[in-house]
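Hi all, posting the design record for the shared folder.

TITLE: backbone redesign
STEP: 1 of 1
STRUCTURE INPUT:
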């Protein structure tokens, strides 16, 4: 209890610092007007959504769920179904984190909140690009260590549990946005993203349908999150019970949904149909497999599903056109 009190006292000091940082940024935005270049609308939406995702991840990191854990408890929270060899490989990280949990958790909060603020206020300039690069490095570290390669070292692997990991999808998103705006095409770039998403969900369907995965039986329990938030855990528990009572039907439905989404993305015949179907599926995955981000985690807390939906949103349907510059003439990039 004393550790939690100390954590919140320190967090208040950090919160005051961030309050003044945000205040300063708001003042700068309203006093110093910098013309923004014309960029494809899809790129602008993805950039904004990525900033919101980092900000949400920072807010979710505030909960002290990884502050009060011993190394053993933290390993069970982060690496629940990982092989013993994987847990041993991350022993150094577990010891380091639990030796100074308040400091490390607050640093994780600061990094993610600042990434969000900078991306939302410094779009398409040098500060924003530096932030993207730093966010990519941070997300890569998160994917390698706290996420244990997105859980892909355990068995079974399922996109319904958040694989291949929010950190990896965040790295891919940052790399896409790090491409110069002039190399973004209003048609070609979203098209390539859509093709990549189509391939991803096709592979997810095959992996889900693998008869040796264990997901057709009791192994289905491994695709559900464990949350310390009662209402979230109640929702997850009800879904897990439903899956346990009919694992063949549940897993078959998941595989069919992944394959259907791949087909819908490949045909690309209707934007709203695609967004509606993808939104419903990814919301279910976010709720049951990732607990709405309300689970003990370190970095990239908001989860994989929101990032995947953001990519689908800019890639589905007809190409999203160009925006106009804030000042000056329009520029075709």
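Okay, here is what came back for every position:
SEQUENCE:
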């Amino acid at each position: 209890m004393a550790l939690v009190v100390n954590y919140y006292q320190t967090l208040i000091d950090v919160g005051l610092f961030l309050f003044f940082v945000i205040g300063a940024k708001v003042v700068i935005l309203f006093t110093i007007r910098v013309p923004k270049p014309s960029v494809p609308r899809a790129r602008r939406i993805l950039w904004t959504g990525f900033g919101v995702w980092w900000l949400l991840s920072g807010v979710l990191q505030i909960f002290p769920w990884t502050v009060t854990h011993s190394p053993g408890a933290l390993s069970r929270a982060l690496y629940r179904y990982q092989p013993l060899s994987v847990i041993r490989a991350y022993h150094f990280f577990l010891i380091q984190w639990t030796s100074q949990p308040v400091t490390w958790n607050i640093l994780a909060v600061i990094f993610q909140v600042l990434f969000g603020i900078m991306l939302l206020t410094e779009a398409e300039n040098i500060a924003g690009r530096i932030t993207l690069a730093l966010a990519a490095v941070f997300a890569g570290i998160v994917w390698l260590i706290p996420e244990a390669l997105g859980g892909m070292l355990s068995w079974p692997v399922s996109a319904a549990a958040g694989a291949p990991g929010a950190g990896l999808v965040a790295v891919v998103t940052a790399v896409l946005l790090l491409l110069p705006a002039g190399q973004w095409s209003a048609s070609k770039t979203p098209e390539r993203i859509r093709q990549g998403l189509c391939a991803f969900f096709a592979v997810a369907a095959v992996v889900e349908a693998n008869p040796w995965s264990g997901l057709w039986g009791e192994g289905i329990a491994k695709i559900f999150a464990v949350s310390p938030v009662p209402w979230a855990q109640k929702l997850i528990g009800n879904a897990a019970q439903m899956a346990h009572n009919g694992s063949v039907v549940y897993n078959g439905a998941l595989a069919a949904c992944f394959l259907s989404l791949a087909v819908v993305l490949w045909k690309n015949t209707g934007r709203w149909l695609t967004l509606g179907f993808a939104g419903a599926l990814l919301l279910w995955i976010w709720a049951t497999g990732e607990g709405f981000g309300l689970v003990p985690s370190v970095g990239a807390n908001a989860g994989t599903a929101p990032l995947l939906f953001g990519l689908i949103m800019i890639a589905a349907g007809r190409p999203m056109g160009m925006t106009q510059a804030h000042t000056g003439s329009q520029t075709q990039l």
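COMMENT: Residues 321-333 have pLDDT under 50 and may be disordered.
Let me know if anyone wants the other runs.
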